[in-house]
Write a structure and sequence with these properties.
alpha+beta, Transcription Regulation, Sacy, Chain A, four-stranded antiparallel sheet, 1 helix
Amino acid sequence: MKALHVVSNNAVVVRTEEGRKCVVTGKGLGFKKMKGDMINRQLIQNVFVEDERYKEHLIKQTK
């Protein structure tokens, strides 16, 4: 997983090998990381995956 955006020392927005965008969290996961750095999978505690279907549903509701 490559870092797209470091949110904090404990949260990073990443792009998976499949091309999906996710937010991963874990103790010290983003410490001294920059965009493009590889993320250590052993430090990941939670993964939040973007769901396109739900995103489209929310956009339709707001119109």
